[in-house]
Amino acid sequence: MQVSDPQDLSFANHTMIAMLDKVYDQVKPDLVVFTGDNVLGNHLRDARFGSKHTVKTDAGEKKRMIKAIDHIIAPLEKRGIPFVYIFGNHDDMNCLTKQEIAEIYSSYPNCIMPTEKEYIHEVGTCYIPLFSSDKTKEIFRFWLFDSAWQDKQEKKTYSYVTEEAVAWFRKVSTKTKETVGAIPGLFFIHIPLPEQANLLEECPPYVGGVIDHHLYGETKEKKFYRLNPHLASGDLGEFPCMLEKNTGLFDAIKEDGTIQAVVAGHDHTNCFDGTWNGVRMIQTACASLRCYGVKNRGVRIFELDEKNPADFKTYHLTYDNIMGNGVWAQLRYLLDADGLQKYKYSLLGATAVALIGTTAAVIRKITK
Questions:
Q1: Does residue 183 sit in helix, strand or coil?
Q2: Region 56-70: what's the mean pLDDT?
Q3: Which helix (H) or strand (E) holds 312?
């Protein structure tokens, strides 16, 4: 199961946690992959509502990080479900280094991030070998790649895969082919590859396309895009926010030939599956109800058959698929989505007070 962009805080979004709890019990996944922005790291010091800082120390921020991670990992630990993770652009936008954050994840016994150096390039970039049920041979591989980090001195976030990481991928893949043969795999990354834009086509505004805000900001010209139906299918809710620098990762993946799909998150409302120039690219909508998104919030499932793991199946489960269309489930979504709980609960409270006051006034008038 892929869970992308849960973006939790020390103040848990209980509706999202309930959604994940329910899908864990429904699907019973063998492994959960968190594909970045697992924690809304740049808001750890904030008050429960609003952006005012109520935590003033690094120790306090770390304490909140530990609590935020526990919200999303404890349900897996309770069920004994293994997990792995990658970082997104929000995860280390705080006083903690990625190594310190990785140590928090590794404190959970069901974290199966590799420890052997042969599997690891750097913190957040590695591969997970999947073995046959008799444990005699590797049959599949999950590549996990870091795509964003914060310069702690400049307080600036960068989003690209380093040339060194691309070179490591080429080296490991080449060595694998020479020793054990071509091993198929899935490539997980938080921010989509720049080549993903080729799955889109320009369209007139009246067909319901999305605006490329990047171009609009530069040229003041509005251009609208939609998924090219010949290349991709699914939901395009926003123009993809892709890696800011192209370091040749797409070319390396294409030349390698073992990657069955590149799987990304990051763009909360995008959820589609397409192929361009021989490389399949999948994007998954966010799980978070705290940040912006639409009703396709949810998780993605991958089903692999040991006899032919390269021929995998994938599908996306939305909030409604998981929680149902009942009144209580829909009310929870209405109240908890988009991080506006304070205002929604205030509105409901004010409405309730007004209704009670009006009812009481009517009753007094009738009794008189």
A1: coil
A2: 95
A3: none
DSSP string, 342-368: HHHHHHHHHHHHHHHHHHHHHHHHHH-
Provide the b/e sequence for 10-32 (b: ≥16 CB within 10 Å).
bbbbebbbbbbeebbeeeebebb
Q: Which helix (H) or strand (E) holds 157?
A: strand 156-158
Any idea what the Cα angle at residue 16 is, between residues 12 and 17, rounded to 5°? 65
Helices (H) and strands (E) in the chain, counts: 9, 18
Closest CA to 4 of 362, 296, 364: 296
pLDDT at residue 358 above 70? no
Query: What pLDDT does residue 365 have?
Result: 67
Of 170, 108, 114, give the one whose Cα is nearest residue 138: 114
List Cα–Cα distances, 91 to 29, 101, 184, 191, 192, in angstroms.
24, 9, 29, 13, 17
User: What is the average per-residue pLDDT within 274-282?
Assistant: 98
Give the pLDDT of residue 33: 98
Q: Give the pLDDT of residue 345.
A: 52
For tokens 């993809």, what's the residue?
240
The CA–CA distances, whole Å, from 363 to 197, 349, 357, 366 equal 63, 21, 10, 5
Residue 88 near residue 191, CB atoms below 8 Å: yes
* Residue keyed to tokens 């990625």: 98
- pLDDT tens digits, 173-188: 999 999 999 999 999 9
Q: pLDDT of 236-268, one tens digit each?
A: 999 999 999 999 999 999 999 999 999 999 999
Pick the CATH number of 2-324 from 3.60.21.10, 2.40.290.10, 3.90.1150.10, 3.10.420.10: 3.60.21.10
| Beta carbons of 2 and 284 less than 8 angstroms apart | yes
**Mean pLDDT calculated for residue range 329-344:** 75
State the Cα–Cα distance between residues 268 and 270, nearest whole angstrom. 6
What number of CA atoms fall less than 13 Å from residue 24's CA on the CB side? 22
- The pLDDT-based confidence of 211 (bands split at 50, 70, 90) is confident
